[in-house]
Amino acid sequence: MAVDTFNSTKEFLTELLRRVHDGRIQLPDFQRGWVWSKEGIASLLASISQGYPVGTLMFLGTGGETRFRERTIEGVGEARKNAETLILDGQQRMTSLYQAICLDAPVRTHDERGRKVSGWFYLDIEAAVDPDMDREQAIRFLPEDRVVRNFRREVTLDCSTPEKEYEVGLFPLAQVMDSRDWADGFREHHDYARPKLELWKRFDKEVLDRFEKYQFPIIELDKATPREAVCQVFEKVNTGGEPLTVFELLTATFAADEFELRTDWAERQKAWSGNPLYRVLWEVRDTDFLQIVTLLATQARYHRWLAQGREADRAPRIGCRRAEMLRLSLEDYLEWADKAVEALLTTAEFLYGQCVYDTKFLPYGTQIIPLAAIFATLGEEAENRVARKAISRWFWCGILGEMYGGSTESRFARDLPDVVSWARGGDTQPRTVEEAQFSAGRLDTLRTRNSAAYKGIYALLLRRDVTDLRTGENIKENTYFDHAVDIHHVFPQRWCEQRGIARARYDSIVNKTPLSAKTNRSIGGQAPSAYLEKLESVTKIAGTEMDTYLERHLIDPVHLRADDFEAFYQARAVLLLDLVSEAMGKPVTPAEE
Predict the structure, then answer these.
(1) How far apart are CA 301 and CA 223, in angstroms?
(2) How far apart, in whole angstroms, are the C-alpha atoms of residue 92 and residue 35?
(3) What is the C-alpha separation between 199 and 193, in angstroms, rounded?
(4) Which long-range contacts (CB under 8 A, 24 or more apart) does 104-113 make?
(5) In this structure, what DSSP letter does residue 316 have?
(6) How far apart are CA 44 and CA 8, in angstroms?
(7) Is the pLDDT score of 433 beyond 90?
(8) Is-contact 336 322, C-beta < 8 A?
(9) Which end of the chain is more exposed for a tag (fewer CB within 10 A), N or C?
């Protein structure tokens, strides 16, 4: 953002509050609600009453291409006109001042413990002009009925009428914008006694006059400031709260065109939400969806540029970083959102075919984003054998090479055109495929679902149509859901510990395989030879048939029946590495000596 797109000035508090009241100053709808406590408001009022600086306000001029839905400051009600200015920084201060000074109603806030309170702010006149008194101590907050009672419900202070306010010398801050009538009443109530006249004169000069003459420093961004700059500036100056998501910012932007993004997203989610067939999509977030749409929109923009015969090295980039998402127009969203939904459903079907059934065993939730964009781009082309093979190999290289564990947006941007070109028969492999490596030694360190490669190998085992050792049924699909299938130890944990096998070794994925919960309970902590004999006896399964079950799990039955953990481990590790190599379409990297 260039330095000439903003200017600095000052404006009187009284004029700012007038502009707030008539709706000339409003809030962009992405601003969260007013949250200041009565103690925070009292501190602000005390500072203003002393003429102390309370920070700079930041505004945005309206009327440019960057538009947001507008809303009035709390308490103003319906604005009588469109805003001239939006508050980017200073919402809490301006709302607090408007509520305490201009609102002819109790201030509804909370105390420092978070308890809801409602009442009126007053200034103790004598305390306010006492140079030895902390000004905050002169600020009083009285209940809605302006009557203070003790724990026995006895009245200790009553300001329920102007006359009672005059008597106790408490000035209602709701009168600070025009105190003349109250001042006349105060003087008259005290029969124009000289001490009271002198007191009021000091109070008017040393306190009320400062409200009238108080000026706020203001930085105002020009209406031509681009949306991404507005949002970046907003988040830089609003460091105290939780950062706004792109979805919240675009919701406010699209609302300016009477489009309810949140409602639209909720409707689109129904295509998969709650449907067990699409449970792998149940954790797709609104920002994930926007990233898919942004990838598709920027890709279309890139191809339009090239179609015009313009230079490729100056073309707009394909991507879905925050800045690119914030540039998404409503027209872009409406053009690609339907295709993104269809692509997500296709993605779920693809994942189902790879034996990734739910979010629990989804290696990388982030990989859904480029995968959906790839399917949206290819459409029916993705159904042919060459394309599916290419997409599948890229998918497994991303998982087993653990390529999506860090910053992902740049990889999304590369993978979308790379994989689409490769799936269409191109000779150049995607960089993710080129860069992916799996070291043989990595198997020993894959112990929990925290690793994408751990989940990936589990899914690859399911793809082998493994059978349950107790029932002989195919584990994937119906059995997977009906019998609580999970990954369990082949050599049981208790058996391994009794023989001094290190946890780091027996917990490796080499010693784990998909089994139903009931089968795992049947195994218990027994030696493999013992639980195999028990399973064969109870289920009437012949030993030769059990051996075929084990072989589908890439387990050598000879080693298992001999309770030979080391021989089993080494033999299975070799077979698992072959499985990984086949999925990635490249040899694994030898383990370091």
Answers:
(1) 25
(2) 7
(3) 10
(4) 104/174, 105/75, 106/144, 107/38, 107/41, 109/36, 109/37, 109/38, 109/41, 110/37, 110/38, 111/37, 111/38, 111/39, 112/37, 112/39
(5) P
(6) 22
(7) yes
(8) no
(9) C
**Nearest CA among 413, 407, 565 for reference residue 493:** 565
Q: Are 444 and 505 in contact (CB under 8 A)?
A: yes
Whole-angstrom Cα distance, residue 150 to residue 156? 7
Nearest to 502 by CA among 516, 515, 486, 491: 491
Residue 386 structure tokens: 């060459």
Q: Is the pLDDT of residue 1 over 60?
A: no
Q: What's the token pair of residue 528? A: 């493999």
Looking up tokens 């781009």 gives 377
- Say if residue 108's pLDDT is above 80: yes
Is-contact 30 230, C-beta < 8 A? no
Per-residue pLDDT, 144: 94
How far apart are alpha carbons 591 and 464 in whole angstroms?
Answer: 25
CB atoms inside a 10 Å sphere around CB 131: 5
Phi-psi region of 162 (alpha: psi -120 to 50; beta: other; left: phi over 0): alpha
Structure tokens at 238: 């609003």
Which H or E run contains 544?
helix 543-552
Report the DSSP beta bridge partners of residue 10. 217
Question: Residue holding tokens 């949306």?
Answer: 227
Strands 25-28 and 70-71, sheet pairing = antiparallel
Residue with tokens 């899914």: 459
356, 286 Cβ separation under 8 angstroms: no
Tell me the helices (H) and strands (E) count for the chain, helix number first: 28, 14
Write the DSSP symbol of residue 404: T
Show the tokens assigned to 310: 């313009």
Q: Which of 490, 485, 532 is nearest to 511 (CA)?
A: 490
Residues in the chain, total: 593
| Chain segment 311-330, per-residue pLDDT in tens | 888 889 999 998 899 889 99
Q: What's the pLDDT band for 104 if we cut at 50, 70, 90?
A: confident
pTM over the 0.85 mark: no
SS3 category, 156: strand
Which tens digits make up the pLDDT trace of 473-497?
Answer: 888 765 556 557 889 999 999 999 9
| Chain CA centroid to CA 325, Å | 14
Supply 476's token pair. 């994937």
Q: How would DSSP label each residue in 104-130?
A: SS-EEEE-TTS-EEEEEEEEEHHHHT-
| Closest-CA residue to 94 (of 214, 189, 7, 2) | 214
At residue 33, the pLDDT reads: 78
Contact 290, 281 (CB under 8 A): no
